UniProtKB/TrEMBL annotation:
InterPro entries: Glyco_hydro/deAcase_b/a-brl, NODB_dom, Polysacc_deacetylase_ArnD, TAT_signal. Residues 97-295 form the NodB homology domain. GO terms for molecular function: hydrolase activity, acting on carbon-nitrogen (but not peptide) bonds. One of its GO terms (biological process) is carbohydrate metabolic process. This is Polysaccharide deacetylase. It comes from Ornithinimicrobium avium. Signal peptide: none annotated. Residues 33-52 are annotated as: Disordered. It holds the Pfam family Polysacc_deac_1.
């Protein structure tokens, strides 16, 4: 007798994803649906023969260790620290000449797309790792499909609700974090599930909203096979820095450094700052890589 999971797996078709199927998936996954009038594109080539599941997405396997197992392993543990850095957070890597640019596509109220930044990266052929929040992925369906199909970019997990990762509700910048191992698991797994089911991606890295977390949550992320990636250089200060400052920040990179910047706030200084910095970094002998190239 087939398993419950086998019964609810997507059936193969040759049709494009329609607005109705995207809307159904968004509602089942608990995220904001695309706004009326926003175009919905086909998924990348690898998924163009697969329709969305007709059953709720929470019944589809995440491909991760189970929630119950994570609770059994870490439940009841009191955090020893909470912040941007600590054991279990990857903020740099051994190298003599490589650096990594990462850009966050955040959740919340700014589900926009910095098309100028993506054009800059493509023009310079500058590889980057993109940390994508679940709500942003759904709201920017066409763009997301194009980014997934572009080998210049690696897609990583930026969470479900875009909140700090915590097991006791600690907050950063006034944003309350997840309040239990279960909630921390869901913050990682719900976004992972959407990326896996709709785009065939098994993201290898996770970055929480605000980039803050505690040590128990960091261990949880490692247990799930998606270690937390922090940063060496804050490139655009939450997409608030002018272009000249973004360039100056990026030029502080040393080999093994990881930049954090943003791709969900067009109109700021990020795109122009990166445009000016990339040739100068290369002139210094630094090679731009994705996280999966160096870790």
């Amino acid at each position: 007798m087939p398993s419950r999971l086998a019964v609810i797996r997507p059936t193969l078709t040759r049709r494009a994803l329609t607005r109705r199927t995207v809307l159904r998936a968004a509602l089942a996954a608990g995220v904001a649906a695309p706004a009326p009038g926003q175009p919905v594109s086909r998924p990348p080539e690898a998924l163009r023969s697969t329709s969305l599941p007709t059953s709720p997405l929470h019944l589809i396997s995440t491909g991760l260790p189970t929630r119950q197992g994570a609770v059994a392993l870490l439940g009841g543990r009191a955090p020893a620290w909470f912040g941007l850095e600590g054991p279990g957070i990857v903020s740099s890597f051994p190298s003599t000449d490589q650096v990594v640019l990462t850009f966050d596509a955040c959740g919340g109220s700014r589900l926009e797309h910095d098309a100028e930044l993506i054009e800059v990266l493509r023009r310079h052929q500058a590889p980057a790792t993109l940390f994508v929040n679940r709500s942003w992925a759904v709201a920017n369906w066409r763009t997301m499909s194009e980014l997934v199909a572009d080998p210049l970019f690696e897609i990583a997990n930026h969470g479900d609700r875009h909140v700090p990762l915590s097991v006791d509700g600690q907050a950063a910048y006034g944003i309350p974090g997840t309040a239990s191992v279960e909630e921390a698991y869901d913050e990682i797994a719900r976004a992972h599930r959407l990326l896996r089911v709709l785009w065939g991606i098994e993201p290898r890295w996770f970055r929480p909203g605000t980039a803050h977390l505690d040590d128990v949550s960091a261990e949880l992320a490692v247990h799930l096979g998606t270690p937390v990636v922090g940063f060496t250089v804050n490139g655009d200060l939450g997409a608030t820095a002018p272009a000249r400052q973004v360039t100056a920040n990026l030029l502080t990179l040393a080999p093994g450094g990881i930049v954090l910047a943003h791709m969900n706030r067009p109109g700021g200084g990020t795109a122009a700052g990166v445009d000016a910095a990339v040739p100068l970094l290369r002139e210094r002998g630094l090679s731009l890589r994705r996280l999966d190239d160096v870790l």
